[in-house]
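Quick one, T. Sequence first:
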Amino acid sequence: MAIEWTTDLSVGFAPVDEQHQELFRRVDGLCNAMEGNIENDVVDRTLRFLESYVIEHFDTEEVYMRAVDFPDLDTHKAEHRKFIETFNWLKREHSNEGPSPSLATRLEESVCGWLRSHINEKDKALALYLNARNI
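Structure tokens:
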């Protein structure tokens, strides 16, 4: 399964685009590891990395939002929290069943689907707002 960041996902704000690209690379690697016969500790390490990186990425966005009094801050943060809940659910599923093609599919559907939707709807609006303020 290939999960790729594509230029249509660019928000036009380099710090955020770079983090999005890294998220897609890591999630793609995680899904590939779960579909293959990769050792569980590789998947565990990747999940831990993603967990901390997602929080770092969301913190980055939220710092920018607060700095410019972004009007959609609360809604955007609520979406971040919902994503973290979904990600935590997937981690628990991995703990219960280990890496598997079915979990990789659920990961792709929930995580990548959410990322694409969130980037296209919320992050692009944020980037427009930031760029209009020369941030």
